[in-house]
Amino acid sequence: MSGIENEMELLQLQIQQLKSMIREKDEILQHKDKELQEANAKNSKLRLQAKAKAVKKSVDAKKGHDVQEIVEDSDTPSQHVNRAEVLLLKRKLEDKSRTVAEKDELIRVRENQLEAKERVMAERDALLHDMTNQLEEKTRAMETLQQAFGGGSGDEVSQMYAQMVYKDRRIMELNNKLLEQDKRVMDLQEFAGEKDEVIRGRDKVVQVLQNDIREKDQTVQDQALLITKLTSRVESTNEKLDLLTEQMRLKEQELKSETEKFHIKLTESQKYFEEMLSEMDAETKRLQGVINEKNLELSLRENDLVQLIGKHEKDLEAILKKENVNLQDHALHMMETKLKDINEVLEAKLKVISILQAENAEKDRQLSESREAQRFLKEKLQVTSEQVLLLQANFVETETQWKEEKLRYQTKLKDVVEKHEVELSEKAVQLESLHSRLSHFEAAYSQATEEYRRLQEHYNLSVAGKEREQSSDSVAVREEMTSSLNQQIEEYKVTIEKLRQQVKELQSRSSGEESAGPTDSKLLKVKAQMTTKVKALEKQLAELKSSTSSNEVESLKNRVQELTEENKLIQQKLVEAEEQVSTLDELKAQLFNDLIISTFSR
C-alpha cells in the first residue's frame, strides 16, 4: 500500500510538472504570437516603405529624365554641372533601387521563416493538445483505478499502475526527444540562415566594392571630360562675355547720346511751345482790347445817332407849327438835305459797323483757331512728356537688367578664374613633385654611375694582377654574357629612341599641361630601368672578376670600353632628354603665364 501511495504521489507530481510545462508552453506560445504580430506589423511597414520608395523612385526617375532632357537642350557650363549632378543622382537612385530590391528579398526570406515557424508552432500546438488529451485520459484512468482500488486485487493494480507509469515515462522521454530534435532543427535553420546572410552580405560587399570601383573610374572619366568641356565653355563664355560687355558699352553710349538728343529736342520744343502760347495769349489779349474799343466806339456812334434823330424830330415839330409855308418848304428842303446827310452818315456808320463785325468775326475765328492750336499743342506736349516718362522707365529697367547681367557674368567669371587658379596651383604642385622625383632619380643615377666607375677601376686592377686562363666553357659563358650585354645595350637604345619620340610628341602638342604628367612618369620609369640595368651590369662585372685569361681580359676590356662609350652616349642622350624636358617646362611656364595674363585681362 505504501508503495502504491508513493507511486500515486509521484504520478501527481509528474502531472503537476506537466501542467507547469503546459503553462510555460502557453506563455511561450503567447510570446511567440506577440512576436509574430510584431513581425507582421514590421513586414507590413516594410512593404509600405518599399512601395513608397518605389513610387518615389519612379517620380525621381521622371524628374531625372525631364532634367536630363532640359540639360541636353542647354549648352551653358552651369547646365553641364547640373548634368553631372543628375548623373550622380541617377547612380544614387540605382543604388537605392538595388537596396530596395535587397530589402524586398530579405522580407520574402523573413516571411518564409515566419511561415516555417508558424508551421512548427502549429505542430507543437497539436502535440501539446494530444499530450493534454492523454493526460486527461490518464487522470480519468487513475480516478477509475482509485475508485476500483477497494474491489480489485493489489497485484493487478500495481502491475497496471507500473505499466501506466512506464508508458508515461516513455511518452515523456519521447516528448523530450522531440523537443530536443525541434530545438536542433531550429538551431540548424537559424545557423543556415545566418550563414546565408553572411554569404549574401559578403556578396553584397564585393558587389558594392566593384560598383564603387566602376563608379570611381566613371567619375574620373566624367571629371576629365567635364574639365575639358568646362575649359572650352569657359573660353567661349569669356569670348561671349567680352562681346556682350562691348555691345553693352556701345548700347549705353548710344542710349546716352539718344537720351541727350531727345532731352535737347524736348527742351527746344517746350520752349517753342511756350513762346507760341505766350504769343497767342498776347495776340488774344490785343484782339480782345481792339474788340472792346470797337464796341465802345459803336455804342458812342449809336448814342450820337439817337441824339441826332431826336433833334431832327424836334426841329420837324417846330417847323410844322409855323404857319409860313415858305418857311416850311425851306425847312423841308433843309430837313431833306439834313436827312440825306444823316442817311449818308448812317450808311457810312452801318458800313463801318458791318466792317467791324466782319473784323470781329475774323478775330473770333482766329482766337478759336489759336485756342484749338493751343489745346492741340498742350495734348502733344502731354503725349511727349508721357513718352519721355516711358522712355525713362524703360531706360531704368534696361539699365537694371544690364547691371544684373553684368554682375552675373562677373560672378561667373570670378568662379571660373578661381577654379582655373585652383587647377593651376594643383598642376604646379604636381610639377614640383615631378621635378623633385626627377632630381631624386638623377641623384640615384649619378650615384650608380659613380659606383660603376669605381667597380670598373677595381675590376681593371684585379684583372691586371691575374694571369690564369679559363676553360672554353667559361669563354662560352662570357660570350653569352657579352651577347646579353649587347642585347641590353640595344634595349637601352630602343628606350632612348622611345624617349626621344615621346619628347618630340610633347613638344608638338599645344596642350602641354595634360601630357606633362605621363611623359615625366615614363621618363622616370626609363631612368629607373636604366639604373636597374646598370646595377645588373655591375653584378655581371663582379662575376667576371674571377676571369684569368688574358685574351678574354683584353676582349672584356675592349667590351668595357665600348660599354663605357655607349654609357657616355646614353648619358649624353639623357642630358639631351633633360634639356628637352626643361624646355618643355619653360613652355609650360610660358603657357601658364599666358593663361594668367589672358584671364586677368578678361
TrEMBL record:
<feature type="coiled-coil region">
    <location>
        <begin position="482"/>
        <end position="594"/>
    </location>
</feature>
<protein>
    <submittedName>
        <fullName>Kinectin-like</fullName>
    </submittedName>
</protein>
<dbReference type="GO" id="GO:0005794">
    <property type="term" value="C:Golgi apparatus"/>
</dbReference>
<feature type="coiled-coil region">
    <location>
        <begin position="431"/>
        <end position="458"/>
    </location>
</feature>
<keyword id="KW-0175">Coiled coil</keyword>
<feature type="coiled-coil region">
    <location>
        <begin position="1"/>
        <end position="49"/>
    </location>
</feature>
<dbReference type="InterPro" id="IPR026202">
    <property type="entry name" value="GOLGB1"/>
</dbReference>
<feature type="coiled-coil region">
    <location>
        <begin position="227"/>
        <end position="261"/>
    </location>
</feature>
